[in-house]
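COURSE: Structural Biology Practicum
ASSIGNMENT: Worksheet 4, Part C
STUDENT ID: 0417
INSTRUCTIONS: Below are two proteins. For each, the amino acid sequence is given first, followed by its structure token string. Answer the questions at the end about the second protein only.

PROTEIN I
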Amino acid sequence: MAKNEKKKPSDPEKIAAGNRLRDTRIALGYGTGTELAIVLKVRERTYLTWEEGIAFPPIYFLKKLKDRFGVSADWILFADPSGLPQRVLGKLSFDSASLS
């Protein structure tokens, strides 16, 4: 793969987790991944690989998401909305894509 060639996501579970991460970011009021990356002090490109479904977000990031916003790893990784804060839950739309 060429250095500037973009890696494409292929794992459906990573893609679904990335979609939930994106939907959660929007529900939290952040317009771009860059904005949330800055707030949570992670590199922008690294964050975007998680949101694009290229890789799963690591534990340290999921802990930051939980500590700062109350968003559980169970939601991002396993589509379990039971632990989401009401302010986030109310802004998410649940369709078959976000729950798979």
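PROTEIN II
(use this one for the questions)
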Amino acid sequence: MWIDLAKYTTIIFTFLLIVFGGFFGYQYYKEWNKLQSVSSFATCATAGYPITISSPLRCFTPDGRSYTKKVSESIKTKSNKKCDDSCKDGVCPDIKCP
């Protein structure tokens, strides 16, 4: 009776080991494929990797690579636009004061 119990326990343990090994191996394979497909800021962000909230935006992959979002010229000139401080209060609202 003890021999049969040890045999069945070994079979169940081996089966569970194969199932868990296959599951974690598949998860690793999917992550590796996702990581290999990243080649730009857009693909990095789409893959769900962390993005820093800074200017310019940067995305980081788990293997240490980083991708920077290119800022277009229209955004650069808009952000560097001089402020029309018509209220003389140091605040530059989009709406002119009365």
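ANSWER KEY EXCERPT:
Q1: The two ends are 96 Å apart (CA to CA).
Q2: The helical segments are 2-36, 41-46, 73-79.
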